[in-house]
## 1
Amino acid sequence: MTMKIGNNELTRKKVVALVLALIICVVAAILSPFILTGAPEDGLVKVRRGSTLEMVSDSLQSTIGTAFGRRVVTLLRLTGSDMTERHGAFQVNKGDSPFRVMRLLRSGQPSGIKFTFNNVRTRDEWAARVGDRFMMSKDEMLRALNDSALCAKYGKTVDNVTAMLLPDSYEFYWDITPEQMLDRMHDYYDKFWTGDRKAKAQALGLTPEQVSTIASIVDEETGKADERGKVARLYLNRVATGMPLQADPTVKFAIGDFSIRRITYEMTRTSSPYNTYRNPGIPPGPIRLPEKSTLDAVLNAPQHDYIYMCAKEDFSGYHNFTASYAEHMANAHRYQTALNARGVK
């Protein structure tokens, strides 16, 4: 009798063990896709303030993949996650589990987004680049740049506020606001304008904004880094003598067409405060976002007495410089002849 009871007890233990094993297998089968599977690729999941789980799901699925995104959202639902107060861009790396991504979206730190820009002419173009990278739209950034009260906060006008937008690489959160971004850009601008640079500008009789404007003209005039200082000094000589800048790029800016290759007399009559053929002195603001190296080229421009320049007739990108009007006209004639020979209108 004792032997029979022992066998029954052993049988019950085997059954319990088997059931537990089955439960563990079932649980493991259910949980393994949430713990052991990984994101198929890197991606930046963007969550707007006030997003519902459905909106988060759409962002996940479009960025990382449908199956993976659904698993993450399932975990968010099971954990009772409220995403309406979460916002930002969250970096998901290839191989991250749904469980890890769920925790990232629930309480992780948003990722910064690298923003690099150079060779930008207009505020429209810059605002478009911002709108392509961040939560704000191009129009929202343009409204900020055209807000005279906001510009005054930085000691700038609507015309010269773009002087703050120094081409470089930066990092911002995806959901940064237009004013927050301009605050940051102003901080970087202030760091660039050290006491030494301000002293050099003052010695030239210029404000930092005027240096930026001249630098923007220099950047348009030449793509040759070794010529920028020379071109800068030419314009500084014109400013010092009261001579009109008569810079062709300002006419292109006034017309709104930088593709123009040949400036005509009629073009120089274009009515605009930026047209330096019609208006004396320095334009009210930059005609492009000047490079930091060009700002330094203006501040450290080598001395010379040239006041005329003309593109070389060999189309090398360099210029002929002179202090003589007669020599300048000869240089201009050779260049015009070369344009005619190439059929440039």
Note: The longest strand covers residues 112-117.
## 2
Amino acid sequence: MAKETMTVGIENIGIYVPPGIQDSAFIAEKSGIPLEVIEQKFGIKQKHKAGPDEHVSHMAVKAALDALQDFDPRDLDLVVYCGSEYKDYYLHNLAAKIQHEIGATSSNAFEIHSLCSAGVWSLKVVKSMMLQDPDLNRVLLVTSSKEADLIDLKNQRARFMFNFGDGAAAALLIKGINRNKILESSMITRAEFADDVAVYGVGSRNYYRYPTLNYDLRNLDVQDPLSMKERLDPITLDNFITVIEQAAQKSGYDPQDIDFIAPIFMKRSILLKILSHFNLTEDQSYILDHYGHCQSADAYIALVEGSKLGRLKDGDLVVMFGAGTGYTWAATALLWGECR
């Protein structure tokens, strides 16, 4: 088959969330923020929380096996991890761990990191690799996050991250199929936000500074929340709309052709603004208010839940989108279902 006509499609998507729940009442009590603010302004009803003995690799493997179903993992050519950099261990090859645990004995493994935009953008990276390499025909892409560990609900500087939940997703990508065909992607990076959010106590800058690390130094934090908000608020909605539009246009479609949007976690009012821009309704997306923000797994969870609700049909133009601190906005278009 000529390279120009070759396709890469998503054979199946798997997700996993732990059984533990932190609901809006729990978040309100721990943070001191009124319940109605948590539910309406923050947009969160509940989120899943992994227990102390359930780690990022455990959730990743469960999502991977859910995506593989009857597919023999020994037939995989590559396992790619694109989830949280907070993993089982510091400087740990989680892709190799997943490969080993699922029994993908014939594959290789590596990682992609772009924070909460990685799950969406990695589809472009992996698709491009598969189209260029004749030996890459079946790839498993996995994302997982337990970043709720890193959020101190009493730290008001980190309040925009109080919605962080734990969970994982995986996608089985196969070259040559016309199912859930991966189209084109778009990205915007505003690098002036690079230092605004981090775990500031960990890393080379402070390795020799702290003989021991208290929890506040091991948690995600924000240097100057007011400054970040003042710089971020005027651009973030427009950047979301731009990457969604560009993903559709680069795929050969008009943005008004979009049938379904699979979002990153966001409060309902912001998502409705994005949907309205594309003349879409709430039933053409999925609000993640019962999952929270599961890092770069969000858009995959939205696809799975949207499909369960019958909101997706064969031939629909779908756009997945996300954003990661740093700050990067990304979107990838799919032609959903069985496509001619």
Note: The chain has a mean pLDDT of 96.
